[in-house]
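Thanks for the sequence, V.! I ran Flavin-containing monooxygenase right away. Repeating your input here for the record:
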Amino acid sequence: MAKRVAVIGGGTSGLACIKCCLDESLDPVCFETSDDIGGLWRFKVRHVYPDRASIYHSLIINTSKEMMCFSDFPIPAHFPNYMHNSLIMDYFRMYADHFQLKRHIRFQVRTEADTLKL
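Predicted structure:
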């Protein structure tokens, strides 16, 4: 039986952690407070969680797509070099779908260090 690993958050780093765990034959369980992946890159018209930051609607990344992509999943060639946040979310969804990461995520779960149940 594979060792279980807790991953906190389904944003950029959380998705990469899930994928790395799977590559190492570990059993990741990701806890995400919201109902979707993306973390800070997911724009919200209103803040569902008052203690959680959000990007602004017109945000465009200031890093080229070649520098910000996951090393094992290039950003599609037809995406612009400096992407709008909605395209970044599209890319994260493609990555999660390609590697079937969402099945390892428990959505709408708030965590505290002493209450994690794997």
